[in-house]
Amino acid sequence: MSVSTSVAHRPKRVFSGIQPSGNFHLGNYLGAIRNWVNQQGQFDNVFCIVDLHALSLPTTRETLRANTLHLANVLLAAGIDPDASILFVQSDVREHTELCWLLNSVTQYGELRRMTQFKDKTSGKNDEQVSAALFDYPVLQAADILLYDTELVPVGEDQKQHIELTRDAAARFNARYGETFVLPEPDIKAEGARIMSLEDPTKKMSKSDASPNAAIALADSPDVIRKKIRRAVTDSGSAVVAAPDKPALTNLLTIYSLLSGEPVAAIEQRYIGKGYGAFKSDLGEIVVEALTPMQERLRELEANPELSQIALAAGAARARERAAAKMTVVRDRMGIGIGRS
Ligand code: AMP
Ligand code: TRP
Questions:
Q1: Which of 69, 135, 166, 265 has its C-alpha lying 20 to 30 A from 175's C-alpha?
Q2: Which residue of the set 160, 189, 207, 227 is catalytic?
Q3: Are 319 and 47 a contacting pair, CB within 8 Å?
């Protein structure tokens, strides 16, 4: 029987990860975190704070630690239930780094060199400024996913290529050593998978944007949120419509629709003849209303840091058990680990 054969009525196994690298924004929320929360009851979920991935760019001990704990609180505040889902920090489960090395042997230099995220993050830099970790980043991601026999990976559009690489590495491993890994599918929603910058709707909303007005941070105050939406670029004309030649309005309407639950067409109808000003002012309130309860929970969690620590310790213990069992099989298939009892 193939390892990918799914058992009837068993919830699908989901794995996703997010880097603890700074300012989480509305794109992260709408493209990833919110979907994780919404699908919690439906699947067998493992959510991982990928601190080892964050080491691929220069950081410090203090920053990484603070960002990791902050992200744990953000995820809990957004509604991840640590009893229903496994929530843990990647470096707490050593099997991730071990499997990364092993998968390096079935991953090709050429395919890593072609990764868009690698090309984006290295463009304009010389080779001496780029860590080998940044190059190897997708293999660690493949290890994350394959360790848990993952079937579905809920992510934003930008991660599709990394999931394809994971499937290719898994298929190569299976062909060489026998059926071992499940081939995962990306779970990318049609809406929200690519929230764009508020200043340039041809670029995705990104943590690394130099301009503070390009992204709405999940921690922005109501006034800052309103101001950023008011200042968001719009398209020529004055009609509030989503269309291929109106990328800015399409992006704002997508945000409005996802947060209000109303279809884009209904929103367009309501703003006929009203212009951008009224639309943006209402959108500002919708974003504030969506983020405020989460921010309140975040403040509570930050005042009680032991809550996230307890959740992460329990999550790591559960993840470790699954990861260790998988590694026993992998090591045996590959013929490594002779002297271990
Ligand atoms: P990152 O910010 O690259 O660590 O991404 C964390 C998660 O958020 C991944 O699932 C990304 O695909 C998703 N994500 C990041 N930026 C966006 C965006 N602008 N729109 C939608 N999803 C995004
Ligand atoms: N590379 C992902 C990102 O930048 C984060 C990530 C690491 C991830 N490991 C993963 C996402 C495994 C999904 C599954 O967003």
A1: 135
A2: 207
A3: no
- Measured between alpha carbons, how far is 242 from 122 in angstroms, rounded to an integer? 33
The Cβ of residue 87 has, within 10 Å, a number of other Cβ atoms equal to: 26
Rounded CA separation 121/128 (Å)? 14
Burial 161-180 (b: 16+ CB within 10 A, else e): bbbebbbbbbebbbeebeeb
> Which residue among 14, 23, 28, 252 has the greatest number of ligand 1 atoms within 8 angstroms of its CB, and so is best to mutate?
28
Would you give the DSSP letter of residue 23?
-
pLDDT, tens digit (0-9, with 9 covering 90-100), for 243-253 = 999 999 999 99
**CATH architecture group of domain 3-187+305-334:** 3-Layer(aba) Sandwich (3.40)
Residues with Cβ within 6 A of ligand 2? 15-19, 50, 53, 141, 144-145, 153, 155, 159, 162
Homologous superfamily of 212-300 = Tyrosyl-Transfer RNA Synthetase (1.10.240.10)
Give the pLDDT confidence of 107-135 residue by residue, as tens digits.
999 999 999 999 998 988 888 889 999 99
